[in-house]
Input
Amino acid sequence: MSMIDPPSTRRDRGLLHPVVLRGVSKTYRLDAVDVPALIDIELVILPNRFTVSSGPSGSGKTTLLNLIGCIDRAEKGSIMVGGKSVQKMTDDEISDFRARQLGFIFQNFNLLPVLTAFENVEYPLVMAGVPAAARRLRVGELLEAVGLAAHGRKRPGQLSGGQRQRVAIARALVRKPQVVLADEPTANLDSKTGAEIIALMRSMQQLQHVSFIFSSHDPKVLEAADDAVHIQDGRITSIERRLEMGESRT
Amino acid sequence: MRMLSLAWRNLLRNGRRSVMTLIAMALGMIAVLLFGGYVKDLVYGLQTEFVQSSGHLQIQHKDYFRIGSGNPAAYGITHYERIVQILKEDPVLKPMLVVATPTLQFGGIAGNFASGVSRTVEISGMVVEDQNRMREWNDYEDPTLTRPLSLSGTAADTAVIGTGVARVLQLCAALRVPDCAIETSKSEAVDGDVLPTDIALLAASGNPPEKQDAQRHPRIEILAANTRGAPNVAGVHILRAEYQGIKELDDVYVGMHLSQAQKLVYGSAPPQVTAISLQLRHTAQIPQARERLGQLLTTTLKDELLDVLDYEVLNPYYGQALTMFSAMFGFIAVLIGGIVLFTVSNTMSMAVVERTAEIGTLRAIGLRRSDIRAMFIAEGVLLGVLGAGVGIAAALTLAWVINHIGLTWLPPGRIEPIPLVVRVAGEHAMLLSSVAVLVLVAALSAILPAARAARMNIVDALRHA
Output
């Protein structure tokens, strides 16, 4: 267990590790008051791991996920995702980068209500210009994998919370990203469904060889994690690495 | 699942709001098309009237229109019969030509010496059969009936006058003209009961009165200057007084047979005309006919000092009316465009607010700002296309109903009501331009809300979930 990797290994591992944060700080401005959300974060996410960032409400775990997910920008420090420095990318470059390298799972599922489950999963592939036959194959595979092969024609409004989150997991994985980010993915689910979703994500992570990063309070999620990053008041208080450095569950 | 498919589904998402927006757009489209169709009919009606009376093109002495209208002797066309023959036989013009007819216009004085009154008049000499054929032109299928000229089949010394002329010449009772002042009786006439001997002789030498007509129709004398500037007089029988539509014309109009008019101006000299009117099958043939006439004027007819004028130049009122109607149409279109702009913009703004979290999600999964902008503009365009489609269908239906329920109206300058016609069907240019403008307005309406959506901060947008 170490809070940060030894300095000598940083440069070498920057390209190998899906996410590397060095000296990252983020401040929000509330009315006229600056509120520090993250302070001097040093973090390496190891490949093919199930990493959870946990901490009390307002600790900065969601901000951390937003920065890793390239949907927010840090004022200080450097962020490498998939070996690429994302800080200096233009808005279009970073959008394309998110589409290729990152998958998102949201607390409220955030599916497009006008599209069916199949179309929701298919949408990132349509944006990428993937041919229809290849799209059908990939989406079919993923819906099968998340147990929704029979529900492809249903719209989100016709699915339960658990089913919607399964669709969201399939959508997050459809373009084979390096990293999937999940912000409180079980917060809106009952405990049984939450446990099923965690199990599904774990199995998908192993099947798809992808790094999952969560923010969660849920002890079940924490239990399932390979690595746990504890945050409080915008600072990382500890990083638990439950697997050896080169080890992976995949 | 392309952009338009997604836009369509998003429109269906809040069906009631989309339907209300569509209705507003369709109403705007209906108003524009019905008014446009009404204006089209007015313009076609005016064009038909001018083409029926003066043809599409006129060949005149090159300075007649500008400076020579007061001097038909100096600015007439001498070899008009030969020119008409050449035009009728020309292989290029022949298929286009319906009528080629000479006319003679000049000013004079009409006198009713029995009542001791006279007034200046504008005399139109015409080949009545040709003019009647000109009146049959109806390329736009105007439902207004055009009657043949009253002069048809009458003797050479017969004329028709405007009701204004009849009133001044105190011929109301004889010609049954309404709304007249009490006519001066013979005993009250000052030096008017006997035609001066010199004028009587002149009139008699030019045209011996026909006894039968004299008994049936009142007779007036027309005084005009001949080619040498000397006065010439002809007595003509007035068949009837006809309202000419415009008071200024009605107060001076005298229509008569060309031969009689030529006798008045040219006497025993070779007869001339002031114009050769050419009526074509279709107005669209004017440029082609004009080009050919230009060739003829520089080759076969190069010895004649001639010019070619179209009906728009000959009738400046046509251009003025067109400009006025265009301004009115533009004003209404701008007003309605403004309403549509506001309505669609409001609808799109509400959609952006409602879908804030969705915008955040789409941006998170990789849509660019430009993709978000395009998505909302596509919805605006789709609304515009649907609104235009519904509007066109409704306008066509309403126009058909209006055209078939027998509504009439009395346009300015007319004495009889004419059918109210709204021309929407078949007006492809108007329909296409209206659709284009509506879609453009709808797209413009969506630009600001779309830009607002595209500018959203992803993290803030996701908080709305």
Remarks:
- The longest strand of chain A covers residues 33-45.
